[in-house]
TrEMBL record:
Biological classification of the source: Bacteria, Pseudomonadati, Bacteroidota, Cytophagia, Cytophagales
Highest rank taxon of the organism: Bacteria
Origin species: Hymenobacter edaphi
This protein's name: Uncharacterized protein
Amino acid sequence: MRSTLTARHRRVPGSTFYVRAAPGYVAEESLNGLARPDGSLLEVLRVPEGNFLKVRTLVVEQYLAKRATQVQQHELQFNGYPAVFGQGASLEPGKDLMVLAFGDSVGFTLVFGLYPDSDAAAEAELRQMLLGGYYDARGQVPPLELAPFVISLAGTPYQLLEVRPADKTYVFGPAGSAGAVPDTFATRFTVQVLPPTPPDEARQRLLRRAQALTTPGALLQSQERQLPPSPAYGYEVSGSSNLRGRRPGFYQLIRTDEDATLIFHGVVFGAPAAAARPTPPAKGRKPAVVKPAADPLADFRKVAATLRMKR
């Protein structure tokens, strides 16, 4: 079975797998897939460094419920790769699952189709999406789609600039600033992914970052609050300090669930002290009315409000 990429195919987020999506399916940011309101979904999972040739007879069954005694499974070729397709009862009550697995000796891809139990129409649509899909082995996935968290940059000037795998940190800044000469006073925010971390330890991390923005002996002002209860613990800090004649404003956020702790840290610097002084009005003229300054941390708050782990 070899599919051809057509104008009707669309790339599944977080992958280089393309499908002709049935009506109602939209991108689901919290997973690498597509979903629709009736509970049907398609998800793609890449397993690097796995030998598919050794596990292909077992890989489908492990994702099906033990009650799935009638597992329908058969081997095939998919886009030139050895493949297995199977389906049966899902581990999720009231749902059935189909799985397409394909790969070689160095890695493999799993494509899942979840749909309401006994919904023949949804089953047929997902079968067409999986088996009529196209895999681009040389394609590239935007790095932010591969992050273990979801974040929205819509309506802000920011874009992902750098990924630091060593400490699992993602660096964001204004569009067009990627590759610029490092600047101590550049506007930036970072998201770091940590194992679940106790609140006190996470807050100490935030404090150390704020202190790094402060000239020794200068005043560091901050406001802290625990966010209203939600599925994840949340704690935010905002404030300002003084660093070498510049006044940085910072916004920080902790989000912790059972899987991870996310540390958001954003900083924007005010103008140098000399440039910030207002020019005195000319003799005989009334001083100009000064409009209230916009909140320099507003975009950080907007972005941080969308931050959460993928499920």
